[in-house]
Write a structure and sequence with these properties.
By secondary structure, the protein is α+β, with helices and mostly antiparallel strands. The chain contains 11 helices and 11 strands. Helix 1 crosses helix 2 and helix 4 packs across helix 11. It is globular.
Length: about 325
C-alpha cells in the first residue's frame, strides 16, 4: 500500500497514532490462560471496584469473564461468533433464508479492490469479527465512494490485532478476519432496531432492544420481558427509549430457543423488518461482561440463570 497516499487520506497524526497503538498491542493469543485471566480480572476490578474468584463466579458479568477464558462449547464456537460462518450454522439449524444474503467475502484487501466496481450500488459492509456495531458501513452509492480513500481503514479490518481475534474472548482465536458485503435491507436502516434475546440453554429470558445502532451518538438499550412489558432496567449510561413491538416476536422467541439450546448462555440478535425476520448474529459475551446493570438484582438474577459447565466449579 502506498504510504504517501495513506497519509494524504488519513493524515500523518492519525497514521502515527494507529502505528503506535498497533505496535504496543499485546497479542492475547500468545499469553498463557493464567496471564489472560489476571489481565482480565484487573480490568474487571478497575471497572467494578472488586475482584472475585474466577472459578466461582456468581453474577452475570462475573460469569462472562469465566466464559471468555474457558468455555469451548463443542470446540467450534469460532464458526458461530464469526459473522460469516455463523450464516451456515443458522442454515443448518433452521434452513435457508434466515440471515441477510451475502454478496461477497474477502480476506485480502487487493482482491476486495478488484471486485469493488462489480458490487451493487447499495449494500452493507462489515467486519466478521468486530463488536458493538463497529466496522459496519452502509454504502448507498458505491460509484461515489473512493476505494483508495478508504483502503487503509478497510485494510485494518483484516489485521487480527485490531479485531476481537486479539481479545480475552478465546472463541475468536481460530477466526480469520474478513470483510463482508451483505444485501442492503431498507427496513433495517430505516427503523434502526436490533432485538437481542438473552437466552440460557434454550430458554429466552428477556429482550434487549437497541436503537440507533449506526448513529453517531451510539445505541440506546431498553429491556423488555417476553410479553413486551418494559423492564425497569438500564445498561450503563445508555438512554432508555420506548421501542415498538416487534413484527415477529413469537417467531423470534421460537428461533432463539432453537439456536440457544445447548449453550449455557448466548444472546441471539435479530433484525425485524415489516415482512421478514433475520437472525443478525449470536453473541456469547454481551458487553464483554463489563456492562453496568441497574438494578444490581438484574445482574444477580441473570447470573443465577447462567449455569456454567459443572467441571468449571473447581
Amino acid at each position: 500500500m502506498d504510504f504517501l497516499q495513506i497519509i494524504k487520506n488519513v493524515g500523518i497524526k492519525q497514521f502515527l497514532i494507529d502505528w503506535i497503538t498497533y505496535s504496543r498491542m499485546l497479542d492475547y493469543r500468545d499469553l498463557p490462560v493464567e496471564k489472560r485471566v489476571e489481565l482480565m480480572m484487573n480490568r474487571y476490578e478497575k471497572k467494578f471496584g472488586y475482584r472475585f474468584d474466577i472459578m466461582n463466579p456468581k453474577t452475570y458479568t462475573e460469569k462472562i469473564q469465566w466464559y471468555k477464558a474457558f468455555y469451548t462449547g463443542d470446540g467450534h464456537l469460532d464458526r458461530i461468533v464469526d459473522k460469516h460462518l455463523f450464516k451456515q450454522y443458522v442454515s443448518e439449524k433452521l434452513g435457508e433464508g434466515y440471515t441477510i444474503p451475502l454478496i461477497g467475502v474477502w480476506t485480502d484487501i487487493t482482491e476486495f479492490e478488484k471486485d469493488w466496481n462489480h458490487l451493487p450500488e447499495e449494500f452493507c459492509l462489515k467486519s466478521n469479527v468486530k463488536d458493538a456495531g463497529r466496522w459496519v458501513e452502509i454504502i448507498h452509492k458505491r460509484s461515489e465512494v473512493s476505494f483508495k480513500k478508504n483502503k487503509y481503514e478497510w485494510s485494518k479490518w483484516l489485521r487480527p490485532k485490531w479485531t476481537l481475534i486479539n481479545s480475552f474472548a478465546s472463541a475468536y482465536y481460530q477466526c480469520t478476519p474478513k470483510i463482508l458485503a451483505e444485501q442492503y435491507v431498507e427496513n433495517v436502516k430505516d427503523q434502526l432496531y436490533d432485538y437481542k434475546v438473552m437466552c440460557f440453554d434454550g430458554q429466552p429470558f428477556c429482550i434487549e432492544a437497541a436503537m440507533e445502532r449506526f448513529g453517531s451518538t451510539g445505541p440506546s438499550f431498553t429491556f423488555y420481558d417476553l410479553n413486551w412489558n418494559k423492564l425497569d432496567v438500564t445498561s450503563g449510561h445508555h438512554p432508555n427509549y420506548d421501542v415498538p413491538y416487534p413484527h415477529h416476536l413469537n417467531e423470534m422467541l421460537e428461533i432463539a430457543k432453537v439456536l440457544s439450546k445447548g449453550f449455557p448462555h448466548v444472546r441471539v440478535d435479530f433484525f425485524d423488518t415489516d415482512n421478514k425476520l433475520y437472525v443478525a448474529e449470536m453473541t456469547f459475551y454481551t458487553g464483554s461482561g463489563y456492562s453496568y446493570y441497574e438494578p444490581q438484582s438484574f445482574n444477580i438474577q441473570m447470573g443465577e440463570l447462567f449455569k456454567l459447565p459443572i467441571d468449571c466449579q473447581g
